[in-house]
């Protein structure tokens, strides 16, 4: 056989072979049923594409995953391809993540809620695509509002009045342990979320704007915190200053609160078989400071990003596109109650059957307030700690809101100078 004929034969033989499969590394949460639901999606993509997925189990406590990511990325490891990211990690890790704008279509990006896309964008670079979302929501006792002829409150002032009226009525009827409104008042990241909801929905901003300017020292933010301080001991138990999500949920689900601020998972726990409040709970977007303001539940979105050190860029992009796509988000919503980031799924009959509260809370998911983690990057933890400590002091009566926010702004300026966000 001549050299030319041999080369042609080799080309024909190679053409008959399947394309070389890639093995893509994916990080999945190991908390509860999350791992199995994540794995099912990855396996479906592998069957569809002929590639393979190597799944790395994240710790159940997500905070423990961040140091692992930092170690892998700082070493420019090729063992990390597609990363599951908490929204507040995006700014911290963004320099080690691919810009997805060049590889995803505008339609692919635009189908997600704009706020979730913005949360994955740093300095114009889309480094993380929304996968599922969460936001602060208002849970309420439908039966008690009906009993007292009260509508679902739309403003914080209406919530204050309604919570007090129902609380007082129930106490007069013999339920001495009931409170009007419970939330997360402990000095931790959860309080940052609650307080940003108060300030943002009152026109007081989100501590730092998207240009990096410190905005928290303003009258509307101070007014929102002063109102919240007034709840403590009136419609909110003083012990709420030590509540986290589970502490506040317990009070509500034992029948001892009219209103609760918490995350979407409470729908499932409150409506579980045999739970005391089955059929008695409603869900709505959180109130606003005044008519015309946006409801601003704190965003808790999970994103997917790709390490810029990946050796399998095309396959990693394909996996990310599949996992964050409409069909997979629908499956995850039905199978695991993961709230979609794609607006069209909030009109999907199958999704609404599985998650009946979604339609009532759509505005909350669409208009979430974003913590300033992207703009502050590695300084975010210091920013958040300074904020929730200042807020906790106001709630506990250690200082008034106006002076506390003035001091906070000065502290944040020092952090900014050191961190140079």
Automatic annotation (TrEMBL):
The keyword Transit peptide does not apply. Belongs to the bacterial solute-binding protein 1 family. CDD domains: PBP2_TMBP. Keywords: Periplasm, Signal, Transport. InterPro entries: Bact_solute-bd_prot1, SBP. It is found in: Periplasm. Pfam families: SBP_bac_1 (PF01547). The keyword Cell cycle does not apply. The lineage of its organism: Bacteria, Pseudomonadati, Pseudomonadota, Alphaproteobacteria, Hyphomicrobiales. It comes from Labrys wisconsinensis. This is Trehalose/maltose transport system substrate-binding protein.
